[in-house]
Amino acid sequence: MAWLISVLLMPVFVHGQTAEKPHRVGLLLSPNSSYWSKDSSSYWSSGDISWRPLQDALQGYGYEQGKNLNFAPKLPRTDIEMSAMAVELISLDLDVIIAADLQAAAALRRATQAIPIVMLAENDPVAAGLVASLALPGGNITGVSILLAEMVGKRLELLKAILPDITKVCMLRDRDNPDQGLWHAAQKAAQILGLTVQLQESRNRAEDLMAIIPQAIAAQCNAIVMLDTFLGNQNRLNTRATESQLPVICDEPAWASHEIRCLLGYGPELNQLMDRLAYQVDRILKGGAPAEIPVEQPKRFKLAINLWVAERLGIEIPPIVIMQTDKIFK
Q: Which CATH number fits domain 148-267+302-329: 3.40.50.300, 3.90.220.20, 1.10.10.10, 3.40.50.2300?
């Protein structure tokens, strides 16, 4: 569910080819901004990133980098860097700043309550205290809210449809960035489905994540459901889990790819998210006030399944699930 930077990694400030002054747009990622990487498994090591989905979305509203639009992107690797880069962006006198997730939005909010911010919030921005309500944000922040807490139930339903005999699931989240709301939502959804859930926590370090597999096996879990993003290590975790006959369910369709190898990924459509972000940016650049622009929610979601992983796990995907699948990796 996650993709977008390549040339964004280098600030580009080129005079427009028209007399109109180019709009200045900032971009702040966080160390966990999964939706913005082309391949989350190799994000930090290779820098193999594309900003094409966002570029296409902005061009759809008439904005083109180097002509009437200039970007100032910031890509922090730590929370400390993120806070410092938020302050740097504020000093650039930008027209609007895109926040890649709630962490980035919170860092920007601490730095300014004046410059408009358009966020891609993976969870509830109201609960996070960033907006007063989705319908009427009331401050300098608006954007798109994915509400992962609502989707975790659907992932568990899909898992149960594929493996009807499972009884216990391990939920894996980031120890350094725990989301209690997401965990509570997972517990409620599991109870409805008659599943027992066990919370596992890990830092985003290879040695810590590799220890999760034997812990899940010892706890007699039938599968691992990801509650968080582990950029740079997700592929290794999934590969080890498959070798140990543990299915992994992820929150992004792209993570069911052959590079990352979740059994299935379910989440919002990337191009839809980018289009709505671009729409919000466009409204603000045309004079709209973020306080009065509703925070939107995705209307379409995609399911991707990796049949290569399923075969190695000895799992036959039921036809009813195949019929719901948007992308199949063979």
A: 3.40.50.2300
